[in-house]
Amino acid sequence: DTEVTQTPKHLVMGMTNKKSLKCEQHMGHRAMYWYKQKAKKPPELMFVYSYEKLSINESVPSRFSPECPNSSLLNLHLHALQPEDSALYLCASSQVGGLHTQYFGPGTRLTVL
Amino acid sequence: EDQVTQSPEALRLQEGESSSLNCSYTVSGLRGLFWYRQDPGKGPEFLFTLYSAGEEKEKERLKATLTKKESFLHITAPKPEDSATYLCAARSNDYKLSFGAGTTVTVRA
Fold first, then answer.
1. B40 to each of A107, B18, B30, how far by Cα in Å?
2. N or C, which terminus of chain A has less Cβ within 10 Å?
3. A83 phi and psi, to 5 degrees?
4. Do residue B43 and residue A105 have CB atoms under 8 angstroms apart?
5. What mean pLDDT is predicted for residues A20-38?
6. What are the chain B neighbours of A103 within 8 Å (beta carbons)?
């Protein structure tokens, strides 16, 4: 089973709202990732967690706040977003280490009004 | 800085018309070359990982090959359901994938 699940599938929020995206995997992977993908562009890495600790933050604005409560769950907390933050947000997971494949979830389509 | 370039940007094929997609990369210390398929509005679906020059992998109508500078994804006798964007990505460290811009393939019946 190589399934990564994400909820919700779609999210519409105002610029003053606070919302969260959720990601779950049960493959025993200890690395989890958040990507942002704009239309007709490749995914861009935002954050990496390794063994539940934040390993990489690709200079993402503080209005995006990641959290890894345990080895299976990854959250992305959203606050005071801008319309340009509208995108497909993808979660991925993998075994730790450079030889391992990242498996992606279906994504959350976020629209900021 | 790692760079991955895919060509062509778009490819329109008749059903049964075989073709190849190119992915050229400049990566110091390649740890893996990955191919993904992505349908509109969905997450990338893993297809292949290639680790060393000369390696080949096949799955149904798709075959991926790797040289020291580029990778090819060959589509043999494509069907309309093979229509998608195909993404190539290279990795030179533990975590970060460098993606190409993708090739959008449209197969007409």
1. 11, 23, 29
2. N
3. -55, -30
4. yes
5. 96
6. 46
Rg (CA), chain B: 13
Residues in CB range of B74: below 8 A, 6 or more apart: B18, B19, B20, B21, B62, B63, B64, B65
Residue of A nearest to B10 (CA): A40
**CA–CA distance, A63 with A112 (Å, rounded to integer):** 13
- Cβ-nearest to A45 among B41, B94, B96: B96
Give me B21's structure tokens: 């997609």
pLDDT digits (tens, 9 = 90+) for B49-89: 999 999 999 999 999 999 999 999 999 999 999 999 999 99
Cα gap B56→A109, rounded to integer Å: 35
pLDDT score for B23: 98
Q: Are the C-beta atoms of residues B34 and B48 closer than 8 Å to each other?
A: yes
Which residues in B25-50 are b (16+ Cβ under 10 Å) and which e?
bebeebbbbbbbbbeeebbbbbbbbb
Separation of alpha carbons B71 and A37, rounded Å: 23
Nearest alpha carbon to residue B38 among A58, A46, A32, A105: A105
- B81 backbone dihedrals φ, ψ, rounded to 5°: -70, -10
